[in-house]
Automatic annotation (TrEMBL):
<keyword id="KW-0597">Phosphoprotein</keyword>
<dbReference type="InterPro" id="IPR022408">
    <property type="entry name" value="Acyl-CoA-binding_prot_CS"/>
</dbReference>
<dbReference type="Pfam" id="PF00378">
    <property type="entry name" value="ECH_1"/>
</dbReference>
<dbReference type="GO" id="GO:0004165">
    <property type="term" value="F:delta(3)-delta(2)-enoyl-CoA isomerase activity"/>
</dbReference>
<dbReference type="InterPro" id="IPR035984">
    <property type="entry name" value="Acyl-CoA-binding_sf"/>
</dbReference>
<dbReference type="InterPro" id="IPR029045">
    <property type="entry name" value="ClpP/crotonase-like_dom_sf"/>
</dbReference>
<dbReference type="GO" id="GO:0000062">
    <property type="term" value="F:fatty-acyl-CoA binding"/>
</dbReference>
<keyword id="KW-0007">Acetylation</keyword>
<keyword id="KW-0413">Isomerase</keyword>
<dbReference type="InterPro" id="IPR000582">
    <property type="entry name" value="Acyl-CoA-binding_protein"/>
</dbReference>
<keyword id="KW-0576">Peroxisome</keyword>
<feature type="domain" description="ACB">
    <location>
        <begin position="31"/>
        <end position="116"/>
    </location>
</feature>
<protein>
    <recommendedName>
        <fullName>Enoyl-CoA delta isomerase 2</fullName>
        <ecNumber>5.3.3.8</ecNumber>
    </recommendedName>
</protein>
<dbReference type="InterPro" id="IPR051053">
    <property type="entry name" value="ECH/Chromodomain_protein"/>
</dbReference>
<comment type="similarity">
    <text>In the C-terminal section; belongs to the enoyl-CoA hydratase/isomerase family.</text>
</comment>
<keyword id="KW-0496">Mitochondrion</keyword>
<comment type="pathway">
    <text>Lipid metabolism; fatty acid beta-oxidation.</text>
</comment>
Length: 386
């Protein structure tokens, strides 16, 4: 029955391309040759990347070649060596291979960002091109990632999942202090694009569910591991996964037009984005159950009262008020903010990754259920909306 429903769904959207099998980036590591090439590339950079980036490069180089920092800490007045030591020591027990990969990624993002910045007029946003579903800009210490499928209410299709991960990885290494996620148009996001379920690979629905679980796990993992302050600017209604991952943000600002809706039971699905853990901590089990099990839609005011949202602003002044705050935050010392976030969040990371893995594995089964298939088919055949 479930398979029949999948096939039915596929018939409504036959033009959607077959999903590219997702390659897990974590499985890829840079070779020694890539590493050496990257070291040479650094020497050829036309512009000084700034002290913060140079410290990161230094730390990754030391970690990749010598392993964890075990040098004695320089004295407080030995400023330069202390900054270098701090940068290296921050990497903790990061494996040499990962440090090598991160070094190569950083150099590659640096080469492209410094090249593109030279083409941008002074005073304008530095816009990253190469995104189909997002707008990404970096200016004044703020990297802003805007979900940009307004005609589809910013539903997150497979391409957007990949692009958000790419944008977050780039933002984690660029010279911005804070990162903002927001939506273009009247919605923040309508959550998972339900047509994602219609591209069935040759291995059938089981393979589709497995690939989706891998993608979801990696996607949520990027939010768990994001090292800089991450702020959601929720400009309008938010649904599904765009709501659940808010529990992994550091600050959430909402327009009073925003609503927060996680209709998982209606869709035959179960919670993701670590919400089965974060929402319970944020609002307690009863309120979390109302949202995650019974699909109660919260107004922005209710979400704020329950701690999911940090502050709510009238829609008419939302952008002005929020961006005034964000610009002030972006002027604070970036290293202090990053380290404070680490202190606040790091002890939860392992737990969050475990929760993420468990939620994805439960969802993998749910996606094969009749309840889920029927809900997707009903939406695609326009029999139901939220
Ligand atoms: C890799 C897989 C990971 C999976 C992770 C799992 C996550 C779980 C979730 O996120 S569950 C939430 C899923 N989302 C929904 O169920 C929302 C479905 N959408 C709606 O109910 C409505 O569209 C609406 C209430 C969001 C907005 O209604 P409205 O009447 O204002 O607008 P339209 O319905 O006309 O929408 C405009 C066009 O946008 C398309 N669209 C909107 N949301 C989605 C979506 N989530 N998936 C796919 N398409 C969506 C809608 O179909 C319209 O397109 P059209 O103009 O071509 O008809």
């Amino acid at each position: 029955m479930a398979i029949a429903a999948w096939r039915l769904a596929q018939r409504w959207c036959p033009s959607f391309p077959v999903v590219q099998l997702h390659m897990n980036r974590a499985a890829m590591t840079a070779s020694q040759k890539d590493f050496e090439n990257a070291m040479n590339q650094v020497k050829l950079l036309k512009k000084d990347p700034g002290n913060e980036v140079k410290l990161k490069l230094y730390a990754l180089y030391k970690q990749a070649t010598e392993g964890p920092c075990n040098m004695p800490k320089p004295g407080v007045f030995d400023l330069i060596n202390k900054a270098k030591w701090d940068a290296w020591n921050t990497l903790g027990s990061l494996p040499k291979e990962t440090a090598r990969q991160n070094y190569v990624d950083l150099v590659s993002s640096l080469s492209s960002s410094l090249e593109s910045s030279s083409q941008v007029e002074p005073g304008t946003d530095r816009k990253s091109t190469g995104y189909e579903t997002l707008m990404v800009t970096s200016e004044g210490g703020i990297t802003k990632i805007t979900l940009n499928r307004p005609a589809k209410k910013n539903a997150i299709n497979v391409e957007m999942y990949h692009e958000i991960m790419r944008a977050l990885k780039a933002a984690s290494k660029d010279d911005s202090s804070i990162t903002v996620l927001t939506g273009n148009g009247d919605y923040y996001s309508s959550g998972n694009d339900l047509t994602n379920f219609t591209d069935i690979p040759p291995g059938g629905v089981e393979e589709k569910a497995k690939n989706s679980a891998i993608l979801l796990r990696e996607f949520v993992g990027c939010f768990i591991d994001f090292p800089k302050p991450l702020i959601a600017v929720v400009n309008g209604p938010a649904v599904g996964i765009s709501v659940t991952i808010l529990g992994l943000f550091d600050v959430v600002y909402a327009s009073d037009r925003a609503t927060f809706h996680t209709p998982f039971s209606h869709l035959g699905q179960s919670p993701e984005g670590c919400s089965s853990y974060t929402f319970l901590k944020i609002m307690g089990p009863a309120k979390a159950t109302e949202m995650l099990v019974f699909g109660k839609k919260l107004t922005a005011g209710e979400a704020c009262a329950q701690g999911l949202v940090t502050a709510v602003f009238p829609d008419s002044t939302f952008q002005k008020e929020v961006w005034t705050r964000l610009k002030a935050f972006a002027k604070l010392p970036p290293n202090a903010m990053r380290i404070s976030k680490e202190v606040i969040r790091n002890r939860e990371k392992e737990k969050l990754h475990a929760v993420n893995a468990e939620e994805c594995s439960v969802l993998q089964e749910r996606w094969l259920s009749d309840e889920c298939m029927n809900a997707v088919v009903n939406f695609l055949s326009r029999k139901s909306k939220l």
